[in-house]
Amino acid sequence: MPKLTRAEAVGAVRNPLAFIADRWTPDPRTVRRAALVALVMTVVIVVTGGAVRLTSSGLGCPTWPKCTDQSLTATSEMGFHGAIEFSNRMLTYVLCAAVGWAIIAARSAKPWRRSVTRLGWAQFWVVMGNAVLGGVVVLVGLNPYTVAAHFLLSTALITVAVLTWQRVREGDEAPRPLVGKAVVQLTWLLVIAAGALIAVGTVVSGAGRHAGDSSEVERIPVDWSMIAQLHADFAWVVVALTAALWFVLKAVDAPAGPLHRARDLFLILMAQGVIGYIQYFTHTPEILVGLHMFGATLVWIGVMRVLLSLRERPHSGAGIPAQSEDPALTAV
């Protein structure tokens, strides 16, 4: 292990990312895998967050940032619910580690692509913001509006994670469209409809019976059957737009990438629709609600992949040399 000079030690403290990048060059597959792990962990924490609510463990740790006023961690007296809630909080650190690994890998790649590193930092700050919002959810007693905001911010995190995963697999050339403007507009309409579908889904959850705790918890004051029907209507709009997009892509002889992504999204929507209708007619059993939440993340990932498949960005070989300065502020 070579000894560090005083100047090198000071530089490592001031800018650890540049210090690591000067001494390590990851394989491109390592960078791609790091971005994929960050995306997978984002989905995992969304699903486990749903498990907290579905097991009525939302107030298993009744305060934040500590678990109780006297303890940072869950205690044996708090039982199953305390263990579930505290475990989900701990997964935030695992997610931070995954995002941190993606940032380090992206920063150490040669040549350095500042745009990819910035996307990694964007993930990190969204994670931090959502962690704070999760604390607010606990402090306000699982207010359904804050719970909905918590899920929507998680969806924003998935968006950035998918974009990062896409960017590490392509170059930095200007995007080249693979389809015409009308197809792009139809896809954006699909994105908007899917966003509305997810937003209405949070209202369905906020008005439903899974409040997140066994105590009396405020619910969104709307008729659950009515809002569930609206959610189903949006789902059919998204399905119709996806089918229309697939047929249009076939008609214009689009490349295989967009066609395959549209097909994949359609299949995900079909599976998600089956789960949704079964849970509705069986009075929302916990396991099906959890599967539906997982499906919601896959739907949004599928929508983002369709959108990103409509263009390509070839590799140019351009980038920032490894020895370039990386001030802490500009790295963000």
Q: Can you give keywords for this protein?
A:
mainly alpha; 2 strands; disordered C terminus; 332 residues
Work out the helix count. 11
Order of helices and strands: HHHHHHEHHHHEH
The secondary structure category is mainly alpha
Shape: flat
Q: Extract low-pLDDT stretches.
A: 321-332
Fraction of residues in β-strands: under 5%
Q: Please describe the biggest sheet, giving its number of strands, its sense, and whether it closes into a barrel.
A: 2 strands, antiparallel
- Look at the structure and give the mean pLDDT: 90
Number of DSSP E strands: 2
Radius of gyration: 22 Å
Tell me roughly what share of residues is in helical segments. Answer: 55-70%
What is the terminal-to-terminal distance? 30 Å
Order of strands across the widest beta sheet? 1-2
Could you explain the architecture of this structure?
With 332 residues, this protein is an all-alpha fold. The chain has helices at residues 6-14, 16-23, 28-54, 79-108, 114-139, 144-167, 181-207, 224-251, 256-281, 286-308, 328-331, and strands spanning 176-177, 311-312. A two-stranded antiparallel sheet has the order 1-2. Helix 3 packs antiparallel against helix 4 and helix 3 runs antiparallel to helix 6 (144-167). The radius of gyration is 22 Å and the shape is flat. The protein starts with 5 loop residues before the first helix and ends with a helix. Mean pLDDT is 90; it is low at 321-332.
